[in-house]
Amino acid sequence: MPTQDPSVERASKLDTSTISDALDRLGISGQCLNIKPRDSRFRMTGRAFTMLYRPVGKPAGTVGDFIDDVAPGSVVAIDNGGRENATVWGDILTEIAHHRGIAGTVIDGACRDTALCMELGYPVFSKSYSMRTGKDRVQLDATEIAVNIGDARVAPGDILRGDADGVVAIPRQHEAEVLAVAEGIATAEEAIRKSVRGGKRLDEARKEFGYHRLQTKRS
Fold first, then answer.
1. Is the pLDDT of residue 139 over 90?
2. Backbone dihedral region of 166: left (phi > 0), alpha (psi from -120 to 50 degrees) or beta?
3. Which fold has domain 6-172?
């Protein structure tokens, strides 16, 4: 079992929308746009193990045998340049990752063999999916460097949180502040819902708990 990580544990209790609002308030770009779960029930939280793919060279490189180097509880974050014509994740990796206790996989690009990840409940988030292999089309160029995932910069060790709405990245150097702001937003929004359930008008509840300032960027 992976060692408990307090920041990852805190992030796992927040939805991506709330974290996104906190990122906006702090002026941090961490929304991994257009990266979607292959099953809306998937939930994922962990620290990023990053990989960069590039078009295949000559002599050709391979798609890599990296999976045994990924620690349990990590999220595999693959930058394939948004390519949808060459997949870099399939059934063998899904089965091994699930068996090893890896938290999930995020791909700026395409995956394949989606039926197995849904059958096992292994979270895969990607730009798209198809059957076309990445072998002899792309190659693993580097691991554990800063990469791009849906226009967000993701560095090794950053927290990645995924749910039905997509994926957000929390930069490690800002995680304490982001999590604190996100938790404050979650608390305020729950207070608004509770007040409305108790009979208060929505506009009054929003005003009381400062709803319209929750996502406003700090000056």
1. yes
2. left
3. Glucose Oxidase; domain 1 (3.50.30)
